[in-house]
Amino acid sequence: MTLIERGHCGQEASWAGGGIVSPLYPWRYGAPVSALSRWSEGFYPELSLRLLEETGIDPEYRQRGLLYLRVDDEARALDWALELGKPLERVDGQFIYRKEPNAAPGFDQALWMPTLGSIRNPRLGQALRARLAAMPQVTLHEETAMERLLVEGERVRGVQANGERIAAERVVVCGGAWSAGLLETVGYTLAVRPVKGQMILFRAPPGLVERVVLLDGRYVIPRGDGRVLAGSTLEETGFDKATSAAARESLRASATRIVPALADCEVEHHWAGLRPSSPDGVPMIGNVPGVAGLYVNAGHYRNGLVLAPAATRLLVDEMLGREPIVDPRPYRLD
Fold first, then answer.
1. Of the candidates 174, 163, 143, 178, which has an alpha carbon nearest to the alpha carbon of residue 7?
2. Taking the complete model, does pTM exceed 0.85, yes or no?
3. Given CA atoms 305, 307, 309, 311 in this order, what sign does their dihedral have?
4. pLDDT in tens, 13-39
5. Strand ranges (DSSP E) for 107-231?
6. On the CB side of 320, how many CA atoms lie within 13 Å of its CA?
């Protein structure tokens, strides 16, 4: 197997996100996203332990739960949880401040999802790359510009990258926000576009924030060393990844509304990434119509890390002719 990466493995949206192993408001998504999310959520604890054992790099999977401090569609959320058997419940103020003593005062109720996990996604990417690099049957080509797909008749024959032809009987396009551009080289239009998200990182003392807390669409995510991420923006700016002072201040204001003590903490880092958005947030997984051997796994929008294990497994099931883990029809390109 050959992996071609235009930059360094795991350095785009996979690195830039927050690492929450769930859609932010899962009840607002349709069945196709929920099906992949459920499978992936159950897979991450095992994956994290395996990567730590095999690479020595700890992806820092933490299952500390999530507090929703204010939810406009609470009834819908609780109905969704009842239907799917999810442990989502309404809790009172005493519960909130027992779990998160530094959360903003004045909340007398919230929603609590105890099973939600988070992972330190940059370290997850490092661990996955290290594992691949140790596999003799895998060849990594990093800092390699993918120029075009090579198609003869109605079958893929490989790719051209950095001026070199790399032959292959099967090719998977999984280039995130850049996937549409790759498929344009064979005349296929993929409805995936970039949507920028900016985030900031606070250098906070350990224990200031213990779990993911979400308020009005913005969130804080603690790391094992005390650092706290805050995100994120949604911006239609094409492939521009520039950060802005306005976004930084907006994110800082949102974070301090959730945990006021963050106002005393240094903003250590500020960055942006490009999400691969699809029209309805449902990823496109499967064979490209009319081109045998050419596959796509793209368009996961805000849930790339959340859905990645299930989306990958579903595509491999199709490529190997196995029984799929979920119904593949909602994700097909046709």
1. 143
2. yes
3. negative
4. 999 999 999 999 999 999 999 999 999
5. 109-113, 139-141, 146-152, 155-161, 164-167, 171-173, 193-203, 212-215, 218-222, 228-231
6. 10
